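Task 17 of the worksheet. Students: predict the tertiary structure of the chain below and write it out as structure tokens. Keep your answer in the requested format; marks are given for formatting as well as content.
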Amino acid sequence: MRLHLERPLAIFDLEATGLNITKERIVQIAILKINPDGSEEKFESLVNPEIEISEEVTKIHGINNEDVKSAPTFAQIASEIVTFIENADLAGYNSNKFDIPLLAEELLRAGNHFDISTKKFVDVQNIFHKMEQRTLVAALKFYCDQELENAHDAMNDAKATWDVLKAQLERYPNLEGNIEFLSKFTKNGNTIDFAGRLAYNEKNEPVYNFGKHKGKSIKEVHIIEPGYYSWFVSPQTDFPLHTKQKLKEIMDGIKSDKIKSEDDEMSLDDKLSALQNKFKKN
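Model answer:
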């Protein structure tokens, strides 16, 4: 196998009540953890989303309201999930756009402040799209000559993703077999949050990445429209909790820099005043 792991890689898949990161809930989670020695560990659970699963969604993944009625809520298994993945990097299929943002949202909603953004992420779909442009079903057929049975079962999808990743590494010599390279290769742009609402510009300044202030630095917008930040992080907006958390961290840094700058200016004024008083005495 060409993949060299310095720490575990947790390949995971989520099934949910829908596709809206801020409104939908997880109904099934499966994690296949590959350790550096090649051994594997598994975690999987149905999850009671505490909201209705529509018939339309049930037709996709086969999980209905009766299936999850007695299952634990996400809050009840959040700490167990964190313990299982805390020393691992993460991988999945379309995970950068869906699974990772949704997992981060559920953790924050459960009051668990485990910082998932410190991990490296490998999105196997991005490798596939950059190399071949296909879906997971086609990817498994293309790389492994296998049919994906029982698609949209979380553990089956996680296993298929692992098989595709191993086959991709064998197929493309230019893909380095380490998570550092694969994480950078599959990253979508220079975004700050999982939803891509915030990003860094060429000067490495945090900017808004959407709407009327797209491309403007967060610091600049706070000066010209101070109320925009308060609106953004208010409970009335449906931006992801992770996005709001990241914006709050950026604003805390901006405010801290401003206070420091004011203190430095005050210190300079004090020094000038002291010199003036000294000359007056002389």
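Marker's comment: The radius of gyration is 24 Å. Strands lie at 9-16, 26-34, 40-46, 89-92, 121-123, 198-200, 206-208.
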